[in-house]
Amino acid sequence: MKRKKISEFFHHMNRTTYYTLIACAALCAVLLLCVIISEAKQRAKPAPAEVPEQLAALEKQDAKAVEKEIKRLRVEAMLKKAEQELSDEIDESESGIWAMFDNYVFMGDSRCVGFSYYKFLRDDRVFAAGGNTIRDILTDIDKLKKISPATLYLCYGLNDTGIGYWESGEAYGAELADIFDTLQKELPDTMIVASSILPATEAALEKNPVWRKIPDFDKALQRVCEEKGVVYVDNSALVEQYMDSLYDDDGVHLRPAFYPMWAKNLYIAALMAETEK
C-alpha cells in the first residue's frame, strides 16, 4: 500500500514536471520570437542618408540663389556646346551656331538682311530691309505679337545715323526709349536683344561723313538699353578683328563669313542675360 502511494506520487510529479517543462518551452519560444521580430524591425529601419556636401550646401541656400546657379551651369554648358560647334566658315547646314536659335525674330536694316539672304536663318523670322530704321520696328508689331518670339534681336543703326530723322544721339535715344516701352508692353514675355551699331570703315566715312555719328548714336543705344532692361551687345572687339577682312568693298556691308561671329555674339549675350533673371 505504501509502495503504491509512493509510485502514484512520483507519477504525479512526473506529469507536473512534464507540463511545466512544456509551458516553459512555449514561453521561451514566444520570447525568442519576440526578440527575432524586434531585431528584424530594427534592421528594416533605413539608415540615415548621407547627404553629399554639395547638396547640403544647396539646401542651406536661398531657393532663388539655387535656381540662379542652375541657370548659370546650364548656360555654361550651352556656351561650351556653341563654342565647339561654331566655325569661322560659312555654315549653311542645321549645325553650328544657327541650330542654336529657336523661337526668335531678327529685325534690322540691310546688314540684318544677310541673315536670311545667305540662308543662315529662316526668311519668315528675319524682318529686315535696306533703308530700314528703328521707326520700322512698330510697323511689324502685329506680326511680332502673332509669333510671340522668346527672343527679339534688333540690328539697326546704319540708316538711323544717315537718314536725318534725329540730329543727335540724345534725340535718337529718346525715340528709341518709347519704342522699347511699346515692345515690352506688347511682348511682355519676349527678351529684347539690341546689337551695337556696327561702324563703317575709314574709306566709307570719307565718302559719307554722316556715318561718323555712329559712335554717338551707339552710346545713346547702350544707355537706353540699360535704362529699359534691354540686352545690349557690344560688337566692338568683333569689328576690330574682322573689319579689314570681312567688310564688303563699300565699307559698311558685311561678307557672309562675318555673320556666324555676329550671331554668336548676339546668342551668347541672350544666354548670359538668362542667368540674371
3D structure, described in words:
The chain has helices at 2-44, 53-60, 63-85, 110-117, 141-147, 158-162, 169-186, 202-207, 214-228, 236-246, 258-274, and strands at residues 104-108, 126-128, 151-155, 191-195, 231-233. It has 277 residues and is of the alpha/beta class. It has a 5-stranded parallel β-sheet with strand order 2-1-3-4-5, with helices on both faces. Helix 3 packs antiparallel against helix 11 (258-274).
Provide a compact summary of the structure:
This protein is α/β, with parallel strands linked by helices. It is built from eleven helices and five strands; from the N terminus they run H-H-H-E-H-E-H-E-H-H-E-H-H-E-H-H. The N and C termini lie far apart (109 Å).
Task: Give the topology, please.
Elements: H1 2-44, H2 53-60, H3 63-85, E1 104-108, H4 110-117, E2 126-128, H5 141-147, E3 151-155, H6 158-162, H7 169-186, E4 191-195, H8 202-207, H9 214-228, E5 231-233, H10 236-246, H11 258-274
Parallel strand pairs: 1-2, 1-3, 3-4, 4-5
Helix pairs in contact: 3-11, 7-9
Label this structure with key terms.
alpha/beta, single chain, 277 residues, disordered N terminus, five-stranded parallel sheet
Please give the share of residues in helix: 55-70%
Question: What's the mean pLDDT score?
Answer: 81
Low-confidence stretches: 1-13, 44-51, 86-94
**Proportion of residues in extended strands:** 5-15%
Radius of gyration: 39 Å
Annotation field: number of helices: 11
3D shape: globular
Give the strand tally.
5
SSE string: HHHEHEHEHHEHHEHH
End-to-end C-alpha gap: 109 Å
State the strand order across the main sheet. Answer: 2-1-3-4-5
The structure class reads alpha/beta
